[in-house]
Design goal:
6 strands; four-stranded antiparallel sheet; mainly beta
């Protein structure tokens, strides 16, 4: 699980969060229960490029759940 918080004074709408401890050769599903959005990523992408999260509102928050699929 990844929890992202955007503070009221934050000028940043998006950020990338590199994850750790994943298998670079595996695939991962990242789901946002609030929006029902799901995306597939490789472990390599999440380890090297990070998980990009955009929060348009200030303050704002997102709870993302990721799980290995292969």
């Amino acid at each position: 699980m990844v929890v992202v918080l955007r503070r009221p004074g934050s000028p940043y709408e998006s950020a990338r969060f590199p994850l750790r401890g994943l298998d670079a050769r595996a695939s991962y599903r990242v789901a946002n229960p609030d929006t029902q959005e799901e995306r597939l990523h490789t472990g390599e992408q999440l380890l090297e490029q990070g998980l990009e999260v955009t929060l348009k509102t200030r303050p704002g928050s997102a709870c993302l759940i990721y799980e290995r699929v292969k």
